[in-house]
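Our consortium's second objective concerns turning raw sequence data into structural hypotheses that experimental partners can test. To show how far this objective has progressed, the report includes one record in full. It was chosen at random from the queue rather than selected for favorable results. The single chain below, 1363 residues long, was entered without modification.
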Amino acid sequence: MELLTFMNVYLGAIKQYLCLSLLKNSALSAMSIFQLLCSIFVGLLSRFRSGLKEEIGIFFPMLVLRVLENVHQPSFLQKMTVLNLLEDICKESQVLIDIFVNYDCDVDAPNIFERIVNGLLKTALGVTPGATTTLTPVQDQTFRTESVKCLATILKSMGSWMDQQLRIGDFSPKISEVSLNSLDSPNIGEDGNGIDYELQSDSYSPDTSDASSLEQRRAYKIELQKGISMFNRKPSKGIDFLIKSKKIGQSPEDVASFLRNTAGLNATMIGDYLGERDEFPIKVMHAYVDALNFEGIDFGEAIRYYLRGFRLPGEAQKIDRVMEKFAERYCKCNPNSFTSADTAYVLAYSVIMLNTDAHNMMVKDKMSRSDFIRNNRGIDDGKDLPEVYLSTLYDQIVKNEIKMSADSSVPQNKQPSSVMKLLGLDNIINLVNWKQAEDKALGANDLLIKNIQEKFKAKSAKSESVFYIITDTTILRFMMEVCWAPMMAAFSMTLDQCDDKAATSQCLQGFRYAVHVTSVMCMQTQRDAFVTSVAKFTYLHCVADMKQKNVDAVKAIISIAIEDGDYLQEAWEHVLTCLSRFEHLHLLGEGAPTDASFLTVPLVDSEEKTQKSSTNTASKRTNALQNPAVMAAVRGGSYDSTTAKNNASALVTPDQINNFISNINLLDQIGIFELNHIFAHSQRLNSNAIVAFVEALCKVAITELQSPTDPRIFCLTKIVEIAHYNMNRIRLVWSRIWKVLSDFFVSVGSSENLSVAIFVMDSLRQLAMKFLEREELANYNFQNEFLRPFAVVMQKSNASEVRELVVRCVSQMVLSRVNNIKSGWKSVFTVFTAAAADDRKSIVLLAFETMEKIVRDYFPYITETETTTFTDCVKCLITFTSSKFSSDASLNAIAFLRFCAVKLAEEGFVCHDKDTDHQSNNLDSSEGNAIVHKDDHVYFWVPLLAGLARLTTDTRPTIRKGAVEVLFDILKDHGELFSQSFWTNIFGSVIYPLFNGEIRTPNGQSDSTEDDSWNFETKTVAVKCLVDLYVTFFDVMRPELTRVTSVVTSFIRSAYRQSAITGMSVFQRLTEGLASKLSKDEWKEILVCFKEAAAHTLVVFDKIVKMMQNIEIPERNESYSEAEKYSDPDIEDEEEANMETSSYAIVKMKNHMSLQLVIVQGIVKLYETHRRSFCAEHMGIILEMLSAITSHASEVSSESALHNKFHKACSLLEISEPAVIHFENESYQSYLKLLQALLHDNPSLSREMNIESQIMLVSVKILRKYLNCAGQEPSKDASCKDPVVHWALPLSAAKKEELSARTPLVLHVMRLLGGLERECFRRNLPLLFPLLANLVRCEHSSREVQVALYDVFQSSIGPIISV
């Protein structure tokens, strides 16, 4: 406590005596005194800066910055003293950090660090050409070297402090708060200096801060200064910006306070803004004036005080507004001073005019006191002001000029800075004359010293005056943002213009430190700028101009790459570009052949040349000069260019060649070992750095390879090297690396330069062979990612040579590394799939040869990995089936699909339900081993079967047929391996889509034309195979009965006879195969499905009727022919269209009737085959089907209008008419036969179904139709005793023909009636007798009807009458 008290007293003494002495002696020009002042100041800054924050803020600009910023006419000794002082300060890293934190980040303090850097920049740039200076060239060069050295020292200190903090940051707090009541341990800089005893006055209050709060303060200060700068150019925009950025409030009072209290504002601009006529500036001006207190102040002094804050604008209206408000405010503060504000307003104008007249040198005739009094008569409401008052006012103005704020016309660099104005230093600087010639000490006057001391006390009393010490390295980002651009300019200009070894060495060191700091602090823009500058100064792009400093720049680049490689990120591209150019020049100097020579000749020739080039080094250097690449290097180019200058034909002089050789010899200082060390060192880069390194290396490699005149492979070879070096990294990092390399190989492998593409793919093959030596665990995907470039290049490359090379590379890898391939199979099959679709026969056959080897010999390796691998294999084989070069290959591919199924079965890929026990299968296991049941085997079988299903839509008949056969053969041969759920899956995803048009063709197009003949043939074969398959595995697939039946009956639904015949045939095979296994409910399902299909076919007739509804047919062929001669073209076209429609309808009608008869025959055969399996319900469905068809036949025959049109059309077209009557007869005859058979075969079922009545109803219906045709209506009253006798007209030829056609059916009915039992006939005689009686009297076309009728009367009716 005693020590703290003593230190506070000691600090107070420093402030009271030492600082006052420094202030008084600051104007002395003696060098010894100045050096002593600087020495004392450095001591105070190093040890007591925390307690002397305000004093240092004043003395630093006064002693150091003012001398530093004087570039043209400084004192050499003083400036050297200041530069040496700055160098010592810059070596103390903590002092630098504290200066930036406490001054540049403080709104109320000067930007000392920024001004140091900018001052050093000005000095480093030297005297402007043509400017007047007192310096000799040697002195100027000395200043430039020292300033660059200071800048480099600043960066070195920042880097050292950063390294120190990053190492110990976890063990110390980020903020060292300066406390009022505590004394922290001293802060020691890097070199042991910079001790700060942190003495605090009692006025300080504790505060906390960190990098984020300092960032906010710094940002606030920068934005505020930006607003002030905008205000000084255009006041309105500046005020708007400050309001929007919330630096000032939106009210006029807030803006007025800002204008009144903020330093750095241009007084003229303040006056212009206050005089504006817009509403808001007027409110601001009123608030500005209302904030001033003129109470008790003399009028002249009030004007003097009023104009101290701004300069009157030049426009009269603005002056009027400003002075009018002043007068109003003065009268309000002093109500008894004048009669009205008008008096004050006029008097104010008079005072301003007097001040201008009295103190303007341009005015010759000065205004006298009497003139002034006379000018102001009557201004006080018609009265005169007292002469004594006006005389006193006159004397005040004449003797003491009213001085307004500084004139804005003064150049900006001549105006005192805002900070100097803030601290009151403008008067001090004007007072002190630093000319060397003056020996007399002028000293500061007591008034100014007192003024500064008052400012010290005022600032010390502020609670914000806290000295911060920060250890967070984030502050370096803000410091670099301030200093990087000036330092870049200083180092770059010095390097470019100066050849002095010391200066250039300091510049390169500065660049080196700058790259280090910006890299570690992740300042991408700044880091890239520094690296790019160093890279450009290597002059590797223009060797003819190279000097030793450029070689040193190359060394700096190598040093940056090795030491800061972990942080370079995108900047690696510039580094590697330099290395690439260096290697190129090295090879040119050695006389080695260029890479382009290897990339444009066969590989064998290039190897021979390489062997020959190992000798005669001396002759190579001579011959190399004739190399176009050497000539291009001599001519040089720009840094950003990848090739030589456009003027490639320009002649190269011997001097240029000699200069080139000498400069190449300079590069011998750097061995190729250092260059290779960078790539070997890549193993030590961290995870993010190695990825960035590889990205940059790939970019440079692409630039090299894509050169149209001189492609190079340096970076490509280095890519292979670093891939080998880093292949043992953890998988996560290696995956990121390979993603970059993969894109590179794809991009370059697809290059138009064939030699480059082949070389790249061969390099990729080397890497892949190396990588595949590592075994991959299951369910990983990295092998696939590694081999993906092969697949992408195979798909994208337009060069057949490259594609063939890819196939050969992949084939070699598969055959040599098959044991280790896991996820890589996907890329392998992708390559072979692309090869299968290639337009080169050699590529297709080469790929198929390897596929054959894989499937035959290495099939277990495919199935032991992911299930998608087998899917890819199947897709590949399917693609080979589409080969246009070899039908044998296509068929062999299908055969291999069958072989795959056999292999799956042999390896025990049995698809059992997971919730059921695995039962043994009747399969022969190889070598006596039991079959191993694997999980999820459905995913192996489904793609195989689905792929075959897609092949069924191929356009080639052999492929279609082979695919269908192989598909169903596989299912039939290996179906016992499948569970019910798997069967359900296969039926749903593979088999059913064959019949509903959902299958996609191998080329990806949907096939929806079911009516195509080739598609019909395929479906016909498929449906037959389906029925055979289903019958075989019915026990497992019983639930699919309905859908299978629907597929079969869908053929019956077809409008084509051949399809229906196929459907009926297959339906019969289905029912025959399942007859003994079907239950009653299953029979019902089948019959209902059959019935619905049959009913669906009946609607065709309605369409035919509708089609012919509006069709008109000519009566005779002759009239039709004559009509053709005279009818107009429209009518002729219409009649032709009608005949075409009629022809189509007739064909449609014939097919329809034929189809119905096929169905009828199928129904009858179904009954005959399975009658013992049918119950009453089943027979009811069958009889309903026949009844519907017979009713439909009657409907068809009753459409007389349609038949008339058909008759006319057929006669005109000379084709046969539809056999409608035959259709009706066959339908009824089959119906009656079935009823009669049922009545005979199963009497009990017949009684149950009342078959007898159904027979009678059908018979009566047939007889009525016959009688109608014969022109005899059945008698409605059979008991009439006196019937009326009518004349019977003979039948027409058409009726006779129809009657003749119906005769066979009537004869069938007669025989049926004659065969009925007596009781049955007796019961139905009342219904039959009237019809039989009418048959006796009607006309017949055949005597057979009469004979049959006689038999009925004789055998059936006669016995009943006799009884």
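The partners drew two points from this record. The radius of gyration is 56 Å. The CA atoms of residues 997 and 1009 lie 8 Å apart. Both points have been shared with the crystallography group to help prioritize constructs.
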